[in-house]
Amino acid sequence: MAGPADEGAFLRAQYPEAAGPSRTLVPVHPWQWDRHLAAAFATEIASGAIRLLGPDPDRFRPQQSIRTMSCVDRPKRPYLKLSMSIVNTSTSRVLAPHTVHNAPAISAWLAGIAADDPFLRDELRTVFLRELMGTAVTAGDDPIRRGSTYGTLACIWRESLHPYLDAGESGVPFTGLTARDIDGTPLIDPWVREQGLTPWVRRIAETVVVPVLHLLCRHGIALESHAQNMVLLHRDGVPTRVALRDFHDGVRFSRDRLAEPQRAPTLRSTPSYHENRNSFVETDDPALVADFVLDALLFVGVGELAIFLADATDSTNASSGRLRRTSCAGICTVVPNPDTTCSPRRWPWRN
After folding, report:
1. 259 three-class SS
2. Gap between the Cα atoms of 14 and 11, Å rounded
3. Which has the closest alpha carbon to 211: 244, 181, 182?
4. Cα separation of 286 and 208, whole Å?
5. Of 39, 173, 208, 282, whose CB is crowded by the most CB atoms within 10 A?
6. 254 occurs within a structural domain
């Protein structure tokens, strides 16, 4: 377990009638309990070490990732990121215990950096949805049971977006920018028509791309900012800022390349039996740090949006190229001078 110093107070705020001093509460997806946990943890259930308390008093709705739940009755209540023994978008959706342990420490680190950075704090006003607490249940070190229990009973509590929204501000997942209505009309069609394609794209660059690149260039921290990990904040379709999320295994850095290495938390390392060898936070190879941003943000996030816009606006390949260049021009306009925020000696992709 990792999280706030007063675990009991945190849990009582979530479950006032169920929290007690002698046990730890772990939210579980009902599908996960019925289809997997009841059998995988049968020994612990039979002994009473694990006890099912019944349904949560509030109603929840799944987010796009399926396993992260939003509270319908109390929208400001933290989101619940739950283990599910499924494969979705080519990735297993369990929660490895070491990532659960690291989640609050990474979130606190990022929040502290953002709070001390005037550009992120005052100008961009980027939102970092912190992971407040994490709990994972293991079945000991028995390698025979590990296959059915590793990462299958765990939860990460993540801040809700609602307390961060300004008056008149709304949020839409970045994936929603490429969504269409049932009649084929893009969700963003009225926004782009009203504002114009180029001004709207420039605002996307300023509000979404700039903070991620600033965090990399100024602080040496890469975020896995693909479309599912970003929420665009807007007022009637006008982009205002971005909310970033999913930090427990969606961050990468080289400790000796950080602007302030003394602030970086000590993290629990990836165990040798963890199957996904691409799931790591620290690396000695700074090129892997850069690739983390280039792949997720530019290749997947911005690239997919550019292709969608080119198709949705009946643009030619040439106009799609102009769109991407406009986005890059917008970035270069507002990103602080890299000569003052990056050291050419420190980053291998700068000649």
Report:
1. coil
2. 5
3. 244
4. 23
5. 208
6. yes
Distances in Å between the Cα of 163 and the Cα atoms of 59, 70, 75, 127, 160 are: 19, 13, 9, 11, 7
- Give residue 339's identity as a one-letter amino acid code: D
Identify the CATH number of the domain in which residue 232 sits: 1.10.510.40
d(CA 131, CA 14): 15
* DSSP per-residue string spanning 158-176: E--SGGGPPTT-EEEEGGG
Q: Which structural domain range is residue 333 located in? A: 19-341
Instruction: Identify whether 311 is part of a domain.
Output: yes
Please check whether residue 5 lies inside any domain of the structure: no
Residue 6 counted as domain residue: no
> Given a cut of 90, is residue 163 above it in pLDDT?
yes
| Per-residue model confidence as pLDDT tens digits over 105-144 | 999 999 999 999 999 999 999 999 999 999 999 987 788 8
Q: Given CA atoms 97, 103, 109, 110 in this order, what sign does their dihedral have? A: positive
* Residues near 202 by beta carbon (within 8 Å), at least 6 away in sequence: 326, 327, 329, 330
User: Which tokens sit at 287?
Assistant: 């090129």
Q: Which residue has the tokens 């008149």?
A: 168
Write out the two tokens for 278. 């691409």
DSSP character string of 268-336: PPPPTT-S-TT--SB-S-HHHHHHHHIIIIIIIIIHHHHHHHHHHTT--HHHHHHHHHHHHHHHHHHSP
What's the domain count of the chain? 1
Q: Flag whether pLDDT at 341 surpasses 90.
A: no
Its pTM surpasses 0.70? yes
pLDDT digits (tens, 9 = 90+) for 16-60: 766 566 778 899 999 999 999 999 999 999 999 999 988 998 999
Q: What mean pLDDT is predicted for residues 276-289?
A: 86
Question: What single letter denotes the amino acid at residue 73?
Answer: D
Q: How does residue 62 score in pLDDT terms, banded at 50, 70 and 90?
A: very high
